[in-house]
Structure formats: C-alpha cells, structure tokens
Amino acid sequence: SQFQWLDPAQEKKLLNGNIQLNLDSGFNTRIPRLEREERLDYMLQWILHNREKFEKDFGSDFICYRGVLRKIMCIPYERNEGLIIRAMKWRNTVFLCEEPTKEKKNKIPTEKELRFSYWGYKFEDYMMTSRTSQNQNSESQSEERLNENTEFNCVFRTKLGKYRLLFIAEMDGYYSADKNTPQQTAAEKGAPSELKPSHFVELKTSRQIEHPGQDRTLRKFKTLKWWTQCFLVGTENVLVGWRDDDGIVHSGTKFPVKSLPKSALEWKGNVCANILLQVLEFLSKTIQENSLTRVWRLEWFPHQGFQLKVETDGTEPFLAAL
Prior knowledge:
The chain is of the alpha+beta class. Helices cover about 30% and strands about 25% of the residues. The protein has nine helices and twelve strands. It has helices at about 10-15, 40-50, 65-75, 100-105, 110-125, 130, 185-190, 210-230, 270-285; strands at about 20, 60-65, 85-90, 95-100, 150-160, 165-170, 175, 200-205, 235-245, 250-255, 295-300, 305-310. Strands 5-6-2-4-3-11-12 form a seven-stranded mixed beta sheet, with helices on one face. A five-stranded mixed beta sheet has the order 1-10-9-8-7. Helix 3 crosses helix 8.
C-alpha cells in the first residue's frame, strides 16, 4: 500500500495542455496485475488490527468493498454484465462480498484491454510526486518497472439513509492541505495523520473527444462510473488525461464531481443512490439470523432482475469468527 501526493506542477502542465505523456512506455516490462477473486480478507485483517475501534458489534449495518456498492448503483443503467453478491450476517452486521460471474471468470482479456488498463496505471504514475520528484521531466521514461498491484486503500465510514456503511476503497492522488508547503516536502513526510476525503483526486484517462459519438459515450457511460466511484467516498474532483489511440496524453481536464450528473446522458444520480438504498433495505430486512455458516446469494442479471437465496451447494463461507 503506497500513499501518493498529486504533483501540482504536473497537474498545471496537464491542464494547460503543455505536456506529453507516453502511457505506453514500459508496457512490456510491467509487473502485471494479479487477478484474484474478491474476498473480504483485507477488510477482516483491518478489523482484527483495529478491535479497539469497535465495541460489541462493528458499529455498522454493512461491511464490504466500495466496488460492490458502486456496481449496485449502476444496475439501473447496466445492459451487459450481471452481478453476484454473497452475504453473511454476524454480530448484527451484514458482510457483502462480490463473486465473479461465469462470464467474468472465463473471460481472457485481450492485449488491447491489458494495454488500456496499463495506460491508466501509467497516467497515475506520471502524475504523482513520488514519480516526478526524482528530477525526471514528464516526457522521460521511468526506469523502474511499473507494478500494477501497488495501490493505496482507505477505510470509510458513512451513512446512506439509516444504514451505516463501512467499506474499503482504493484511492489515487492527494492534494497538499497547505498550499504554501512544497508538495515534495509534504511527500517526504509521508501521509498526513488525518486524511480528508475531499483532498483526494480521482485520476482517469479517456480518448480525446473528436466527434459527437465519443462525447456521447463519455457522458452516458464513463461519467456514470466516475460519479458513483467518487460519490461514495466524498472525492470532489476527477482529473482526466485526454489520450490519443497511441496512448499519448497532450492535455487534461479537471471535472468537479458534482458537475458530472448535470452533463450526464441518460443517467441520474438520485436513481443510482435510490437503488442502492433499496437493495440495502431489502437485504437488511431479509437476512435476520447471525450465522458463520449460512451464506446468502444475491444475483442480478440484465432483463432478469434480482434473486436472493441461501446457498445450499456446500460452498465455503467467507467469514471467519471475528
């Protein structure tokens, strides 16, 4: 886990269009991301190491990763991918864990998809102080192999309606709280003792807009994912690097998160929040029994709707005693 400061000099160059970043640099020598089935291991480890923060129960109605919540929020507008969530209740808290669908398990990413994914990591690498403070200009190639498994995760507490949520989310760059302190000096001190969600910035790459179809795709699909991701953790800005087909970024735009629903095509933020609240309410009312052996299974597929059942095929529970 690595905390990283956003480099203000890089951001200024990006927003002024005075930059050239080759996102494809180092692709063949990268350390590829290890795809592993999501379990709640990291969250459970955090809970065990922070028992003093909890009393008899976990002070939460639901515990999960942000990805589960975000995917539920996108359901009203999802036309292709299904969603499977396993659920267990212990100490009056429902734990949610995503399980890959058969299609996702069997899917082998193409080289193009792997490259697009790498470009996102590389953009983050270029924009962070730890990358740019080593007397490297923005056009130079980093000598170090980029590790796609490096990430910084935070634990969040929040409420949606009456439900208390505790979840982990991967976060990108962080703005220095003190504008008078050089970012490099802040970086040498490491992460601040108290992190403020509003100081994080979400970093994204997207194809530079050259015709109305690309603009429509951006406002109909991409901004939905960006908004749901940021809404859940209180991130206020998305910094987008506009790339060409070769992975070269020449400019960027900073979008206030609150502006994304205003420019959206065919999606509404309140619809996303409402479906999440409805699903949480349904699970809370249905899953009553505390048990370390009973696993519930919520499935949703396009054009089929929701189905909730108790697993009876001998599958392993994903919770150990806490």
